[in-house]
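Inputs:
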Amino acid sequence: MADESVENKEESTGAPEAAPEENAPAAETGSTAAVATAEAEGAEAAAEAEGTVAEEAAEPAVAPAKMIQPDIGFVREVIGAGGTDLKKCFQCATCSVVCNITPDDHPFPRKEMIWAQWGLKEKLVADPDIWLCHQCNDCTAQCPRDAKPGRVMQAVAKMSIPSLSKPGFLAKGIGNPSMIAIMTALPLIIVGLAVGLLGSFNPQRGEGEHAGQIVYGQFLGHWPIVDVFSTFFVLSIIIFLLGIRNYWVMMKKHASEEGSPVSGSGMAQVGPVIGEIAAHKRFGKCDETKDRKVSHLFILYAFVLLFLATVTSTIYTDFPLLWGGHGTESPYPTLSLVKLFGYSGAIAAVIGIGLITINRFKHQAKVGLGSYFDWQLIVMIIVLMLTGIGSAAFRLANIGVLAYPTYFIHLSTVMFLFIYAPFSKMAHMVYRATAMAFARTAGRDTPM
Amino acid sequence: MEKKIGVYICSDCGIGEALDLEALEKVGKNEYSAAAVRSAPFLCSQEGAQLIKDDINNEGINTIVIAACSARVNTDAFDFDPAQYITERVNLREHVVWTQQPRAAAEAEAAAPEEAPAEAAAEGEAEAPAGEAAAPAETAEAAPEAPAEETGPQVNENTQEMAEDHLRMGIVRARASEPPEPHIEELNKTILVIGGGPTGLTSALQSAAAGYDVVLVEKEAQLGGWGKKMYKLMPDKAPFAESRKPDIDNKIQAVEASGKIRVIMNAEIEKTAGEPGKYKVTVKSNGSSETLDIGTIVLAIGWKPYNANRLEHLGYGKFRNVVTNVEMEQIAIDGSGTIARPSDGKQATRVAFLQCAGQRDPEHLPYCSSVCCLTSLKQALYVTESNRDAAAFIVYKDMRTPGLYEEFYKTAQNNPGVMLTKGEITSITEDASGNIILEIDNTILGEKVMVVADMLVLATGMVTNALPAHVEGVTDLTPEYVGSWRETETVDGIIKEVVADPVVLNLEYRQGPELPYLKYGFPDSHFICFPYETRRTGIYTAGAVRHPMTAMQAANDGTGAALKAIQCLELASRGMAVHPRSGDQSFPEINYTNCTQCRRCTVECPFGVLDEEENGTPKTNTFRCRRCGTCMGACPQRIISFKNYSVEMIASQMKAIKVPEEDSKPRIIALICENDAYPAIDIAGLNRLSISPFYRFITMRCLGGTNLVWIADALSAGIEGFLLIGCRFDDDYQCHFVKGSKAANERLGKVQETLGRLMLESERVTQVQLALNEWDKLPQIMEDFAGKLKEFGPNPFKGF
């Protein structure tokens, strides 16, 4: 009862005036936001009247006021995280109008802009829309104030990761340019330990049909790779699952606080969301950066193909019977399924990351080059591709002095991506999908 | 002056083609025996002007009637010394030829209806043997038209008649004019600046720099005004992005160092008597009084904050940590930029600002003070700049940062600690520790929110110091002057008027001790067209006394007002009027023998020119006069006139109009104000808009000069009606003489009685309010009025 605003009918002649709070933070919980109309008597009288007023309240009045506690540190963080021009926004809502992706109901990014300006971290972190945004940056290009809403959305999304993926310090570290050395060192140490303990830094050349050739299995064997990498991969998946759950709970709470509660688990939306991602319909809606659809699709399917290559290699090696009985260790035959997946994945990735890089520069004038967060992932993928192709090339050329270090870096890059997937920009694939599923569950989704 | 009239008709710009110039010349020659009547092409050319000059030199022409284009153009070509010659411009081009239909069209239209009577006549003749009496009547009516046709086969007779009447009126007007004999006296050229704030200091410095002696009076013990009471000021130079430390001390030092500026501190003006160039101002300072000779006055008394005690509903006076923006400046000064809240001196890290506190509110100040948004942005930066983790919340109705101050808004907005939202405060409460809790609805945050602040700053507005200190609100003021009602008995009956309270000037003027205001106590002349001017010639307002503004704008105002004060002195010393009749050397002369002491002139003068003797006889103060002629129009005895503008002159113009007996040719007089209506008709002409040919235009300095005697006279002479075309009046007035068109309108109320006595419809005399940019509506207005007169039927006095 007390948390509802009430109106004293008998004294409703004056302007409504809230009863004073004993202490301000209490109001945050929404316990005593009673509104009493007792202008003449002043605040003290209103305080006295509060009890009776609350009890005798005949009808609930307007929605209760919500205590907000602006966090200036958060504002500064958003500015530092790439939302540099956040404060320029004067709430004209051009951004929400030009956005082709936003739901019509409570559209983004206007509301996120003011929340960010006011440092309302709680609202933003639990907001499904920060991940629904696809970074078209139509808003950034059209913003009359050059506040770059797209960049702010991304900065806020990045800053929400520590609240979703635990432990949060990893997210903070990966998002911080000055931490890059330490963050890079971690996968190098893990892979280094793996090679040192389970493989050999001084590998022998191959035997039999591979006599004298470079065999990466000698550097780090198939099973150690599977063991070590799977461990971190599964760890990341667990972190992601916990993150999805966190996010879902937060979004639900946010939705009820915003006055439109959402029920349902969202499991029913998994299929449609995957279908939508597979077709990349939303990217196609972008105006300024329409070509991102193609480049991003290439990258998406490159990762799918490379994932298939990894899976098939395991099947090749561990389940030889499925493959006509001759279980093989790497290197695999050039025309084996592993290689075909691998090569096509590599080609797709090269095309994809190449286009992404070119597009970034092409759109620089209108929507900016992008943040550290973006470029970290782009650079890692470029390194992954170069070292992957390099490893294969140097192996075939049989130049050990180049092949093994390249392969080492390649493995470390893979490890980097595995470990940091829930914390780096990679996290977008999971949280955006989650946000899409939530929007569908909430009925806020716009048909694409 | 022995009049020798020369009439010069220009045949260019379509005048020659549309009119029969020979017939027009005959008007001058035969009807008025002009000494010279000539028509010439391109009269404004050197050759054309030479023609006139030759006549002046050889024939002794001294009264020059130029029937050509608008009096507003070619003024340099027809510039003859007004002290020696009377020059009258008859506007045949814009007002007659260009507003009438092109000849071909007019003929085509004229031809069609004329056929019908012709046929009727023919039928009548045919039927005549049957004994119809109609036929002779028809022929008789057709007969007088024939000579008109003779004026030229190609000329439209209505246009010709219109031109001829206008020429007649021009000649008559010139004949009734005398060259003005300027009123010249040795004048004092000291400028008195009242108020030593940013405005007054600038005004004093600028006047001194222009070479004038200045007396600067300040009521307080130190100079600087509000400039001394601010921690920082709004930016005053490009890029208008950063607030600045007050630099008022530089100006104070410059004033103190100037040899031309005398400063009187702790001053109070006991009395201001006289007129521009001859003011006697009694100043009391530190117990002793002194009377100064003053030329003109700049009133820069500034503003005071709105009384926040009336804002209890916003927590002021009720909660310890609710302060006004003015108090906030003092807090910032006291803390050298650090904001300590009043209740416990704790540094405020959460400060809320409520914009429009008691402003844009019909209960308090109904207007926007235009600077409070900037002030709050500036003060929000005090909060955040003195503490990196502090936040300032600004809740506004609209964020208004006019002009280049937008850049300052951007600076504040870009500060991470400055948080802005539109919103309405629904409740303000205080908790035990003195924090202020605000509930804000309709925010751009999308919901009703509650914010806890260490303190709340109310952005209260600015009230002009022209209002007496005891006046609390600005919405229930007595009209024009703040004061109390008084009833006076006059020959017109009981006049109820306001007796103004003295505030600062203590003028010895019949109309009261202070400047009249238009709205909310701001002393007024026209806000846009004539800034600085007031309704008291020689007294100019500058700075926040005339409307709310920033210190920079106030300083600019000080310069502007100084310039007006100088203009006034220089023109007055040449016996000339100030704006809008700049350079006019005529002035009203009163024939006292016939004065009935009715006081109408002293009441109606918009500029308080006329004082009153004990018995009500008007006493002129020529240098206060703007020469509008409102007194002339007000006087029922017709005893006020100018050398070149009088009741008789206009009356004789009206008499000069030929009123034909046919009902198809009504004559309507349009009294047009020279400032807006005259150029409006010019523009209509320029755009070839067609105007009814039955109008005759008589130019007035201002409709305020309209004397009711003309109306009765003209209506009895068969004129169908009067259309008075004047400026807008009342709140958004556009009258160049402030109240002239309104005075005319009030007088028209009284004409009803006269019309009733004549058994005429009261709408035969109608006033319309026309802005210059409404020239396109003019033809319709005139057509409608003519249509209404037609409905009334012909004036029964016609033909008497």
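The two ends of chain A are 43 Å apart (CA to CA). Flag for discussion at group meeting.
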